[in-house]
Design goal:
Residues 201-459 form the ERCC4 domain. Residues 22-183 are annotated as: Disordered. Residues 84-99 have a biased composition (Acidic residues). Residues 59-76 have a biased composition (Polar residues). GO terms for molecular function: crossover junction DNA endonuclease activity; DNA binding; metal ion binding. This protein is of the alpha/beta class. The protein has four domains: 1-49 and 57-111, no CATH class; 125-188; 201-333 and 349-403, Rossmann fold (3-Layer(aba) Sandwich), CATH 3.40.50.10130; 422-497, DNA polymerase, domain 1. Helix content is 44%, strand content 16%. It contains 13 helices and twelve strands. A hairpin with a 6-residue loop joins strand 11 (470-472) and strand 12. Helix 10 (422-431) packs across helix 11 (438-447). The protein is flat. Mean pLDDT is 76; it is low at 1-55, 67-73, 86-94 and 113-129.
């Protein structure tokens, strides 16, 4: 049996066939495919007695030595698969699976030849030579891209700079707005119970029917107070009313005044300026009630005030007239025997004083009207200014009274004395106790420098602990020979150590 080795195509594959069916592939006349990697070699039968050549390792050579020669059989250590192509019936399945050797197309087998390897070695250089224009184009594109990127970075930087500038400007404006808001909040939360602060909020509506003398003096007094004034046609003669420039609103939740947009608000007060002659005429004609009803009809939600000018001098003059009339009647009786042809001046009529007093009581009791008296036009103008200042503080005083409603004592300014420092406050606190004078307070403060020390001293010494404490002669600490005494000592002991909640001893 002839053995054939297909080393390039089927490594380590040996095919056995009959001699009659084996094609001689060693004949040089048979055309060979030049692209094929190597020709198919045929190996003559070699006896098993031939010794294999021993392959030695060349340490200098970069390649390993050949393991087997041309005429040697394949090495035994490699796992070869030998296919016996015999016409036996036992191998029908194997012949059906493998194609016939005559139909075996070696050209279809993909195998890299030396030419292909040399081509692959040359291709990189060609690709490198061809890639030079591409690199130049890429470099040109890269330069354009870099220019665009530079412009984009510059634009982004400019946008970022503009954004930061805008944010900085917005932060600055927000800070300015916050500062203005805090300033406005502080402005509206000033002590508005002070008439000097609240008066500029007022606007005075002066009636056109008011005495020009009073109007001139009134406007001259309102200008220094920064109070605006206007003239209006009153439905009732000589009625002055007020309006307020509201710029704040009290927040009950926060407990402070908040600024709001400016608006004008009518005050619920109306002032009637009336001369003595006008008032006496209304009282004599019994038309005073009609006048009050007319005021209530036009100023229904207002508190009405009557400013009576010259009524007190008129009443004094009326009393003098009564006295003169009495004297005249007495003298007339004495001169009845004399010449009666003398013509006397017509006497003024006396108005009963009770009529005027009843009219005043009617205003106060029946109509709940506030009455104030003035003597001359200048005083009338001054009191209009005083009423303007008082009306300006009304809402703020109401709010303060509402806030201090829970307090058990008066919270008006000046009711409670305040000290300059801790010691002075301590001394003034001791003086609020009944029968504790300033010398006693300074003597106790010199003995016990704080309230806690005083309480501990009283608890340790008992009710008579302060009995022998000397009184102070002055604020510098000089003591006199007099002592506090037992009564004051017991009172102070009861005040500072007592636990009776219903006690009123202070």
């Amino acid at each position: 049996m002839t053995m054939m080795t297909l080393s390039p195509v089927l490594p380590d594959l040996y095919i056995s066939r009959r001699p009659s069916q084996l094609q001689d592939l060693s004949n040089p006349q048979i055309p060979v495919d030049p692209i094929a990697p190597s020709p198919i070699r045929t190996t003559a039968p070699v006896s098993k007695s031939l010794h294999r050549r021993t392959a030695t390792w060349d340490p200098i050579s970069s390649s390993a030595p050949e393991v087997c020669s041309f005429d040697s059989s394949p090495p035994g250590n490699q796992g070869h698969v030998v296919i016996d192509i015999d016409d036996s019936d036992a191998n029908d399945n194997s012949e059906d699976d493998l194609p016939d050797i005559s139909n075996f197309d070696i050209a279809k087998i993909r195998r890299r030849s030396q030419l292909q390897r040399s081509q692959s070695d040359v291709i990189p250089s060609k690709s490198r030579s061809r890639s030079k224009p591409t690199t130049t184009t890429t470099s040109k594109k890269s330069a354009a891209d870099r220019a665009r990127e530079k412009e984009a970075r510059a634009a982004a930087k400019e946008v970022d700079k503009e954004t930061k500038r805008r944010e900085k400007q917005e932060a600055k404006e927000a800070k300015a707005r916050e500062k203005e808001r805090n300033a406005a909040l502080a402005e509206v939360n000033k002590l508005r119970t002070d008439k000097k602060v609240s008066t500029p909020e007022m606007m005075v509506d002066i009636p056109s029917s008011l005495n020009p003398t009073i109007t001139t003096q009134l406007t001259a007094m309102l200008e220094p107070l920064d109070v605006q004034f206007t003239t209006w046609e009153s439905p009732v003669d000589n009625v002055i009313k007020w309006r307020r420039k509201v710029k704040s609103r009290f927040n009950d939740d926060l407990g402070l005044w908040e600024p709001i947009p400016l608006r004008l608000q009518d005050e619920k007060h109306a002032l009637v300026v009336m001369t003595a002659d006008e008032f006496v005429k209304l009282a004599l004609d019994d038309e005073l009630s009609s006048h009050v009803e007319k005021m209530e009809r036009h100023f229904s939600a207002h508190h009405i005030l009557y400013l009576l000018e010259g009524l007190i001098p008129w009443m004094r003059k009326n009393r003098n007239l009564r006295n003169r009339q009495f004297t005249s009647r007495v003298r007339a009786q004495e001169a009845s025997a004399c010449n009666s042809s003398r013509r006397n001046k017509p006497a003024e009529s006396y108005i009963p004083e009770e009529t005027i007093e009843d009219a005043l009581l009617q205003l106060q009791v029946m109509h709940d009207v506030l009455i104030h008296h003035t003597t001359i036009p200048l005083e009338t103008a001054e009191w209009i200014v005083n009423f303007t200042q008082h009306v300006s503080t009304i809402p703020y005083r109401k709010q303060r009274d509402q806030a201090t409603l829970v307090a058990g004592f008066c919270m008006e300014s000046g009711q409670v004395k305040t000290g300059e420092d801790t010691k002075d406050t301590y001394v003034k606190m001791l003086q609020e106790i009944v029968r504790v004078t300033a010398p006693i307070a300074y003597g106790v403060a010199q003995e016990f420098t704080s309230v806690s020390e005083l309480v501990r001293g009283l608890e340790a010494g008992g009710p008579t602990r302060l009995e022998g404490v000397r009184k102070s002669a002055n604020k510098d600490g000089t003591f006199s020979d007099r002592t506090i005494g037992q009564a004051v000592s017991r009172r102070m002991y009861k005040v500072f150590t007592g636990q009776d909640e219903t006690s009123t001893d202070v």
